[in-house]
Amino acid sequence: MLQRKRVAVVIDSNAVWDDWLLERDVWTRLAILSGHGLIEVCLPEVVVQELARGYKRALNNLVAGLEKLKLTKLASLLELNVPPNIADLNDSTTEKIATYVPRLRARLAELGVTTLPVPAVDQQTMLTRALEARKPFDAEGKNGYRDSLIWYTVLSMCKDRGPSTKIMFVTDNTKDFCDTKGELHESLLEEVVATGSSPIVTARNLRLAVQYLKDVEHLDTELELDEFPVVTPSREQIEAIITAACEQIAGQRVTTAEQVEYSDASDFSGFHTIIEDEADLQDIQPDLDTIEWELAGRDLDGRPMLEVSLDAGVTLDGMAFKADYYGADVDSVSVLDGDWNDHYMWVATYHRGRLSLLVYLTVDGMHFDAVELVNAEDIVREAISED
Q1: Verdict on whether the full-model pTM lies above 0.85
Q2: Which residues contact 240 (CB under 8 A, 6 or more apart)?
Q3: Each residue of 62-81: pLDDT tens digit?
């Protein structure tokens, strides 16, 4: 049986431009394939430095465009959390720019991306290439220095990995690297052949790259779904996932008594409420700053699982004895119907609780799929019991 070739995916700057911290969904797909050793995702150091320059320019241009605006009025009208003046905005921008490269490198490490060093190309080689106007230099040999460094990075990989590795170059540069069809210029293909490497495959963006990787034979695998590695979601993804999970839980029926027979409702007996036996979980407002979570592998259907705990504002509504209401803390209770019958009234109670969730993601690990409420405790009750 022939050994399948591994694929090394080398990514050009234009394929990640504006996605400054690599948070688009496609990165999770790449990381899943990389995590199992099916591919190697590579970003040239030249691209890292180009992204840093682009990020700085993008922020500075944005601030420059806001200088004529009255930020206080803008923030008030649009309910935006922005600094009230340009000086404060400049300070925030300066901090973001100063920390960008460390944040980017941390994200690359999190995704398992290999950073390829700046190639050791002597100046005479670069000068000759420019004077001969060889791609990726332009027709006059004036522009193309950084693109040439990226190209020598690709050639270096071709030499180092040899024919056992298939190189995919993700670029949409149809002027310097590729023709209008997205295929490498012929002169560049000849340089690849000279290294002894397999022919380079190109993709014009990461989405098309992932589609190709899914279709080719070398990514066929006999792994069961629950055996695939799980890629750590970004903080932004986690917050979106938890928000969606809380929205799904809202509206469920929950039990407020410690023992309710024949009920499959979630247990909220840890909440201090005057509502009898069962309640509707009317609303959950997650405090995203309190999230604690860890990956718990995959279930048998291949869905990644997250064990999550967080604080949240919780609203319950249900029936309460009138006598219990008049002895309760009325600040945490609203009356929805004070005369439901002779004995009961319909109320809503407000809590700050600690919730434990088991969250299921889609198989690719990118989106929320389902949630189970594992435990719920009223923070006020916890504080009382500790006293």
Answers
A1: no
A2: 368
A3: 777 666 556 656 566 556 56
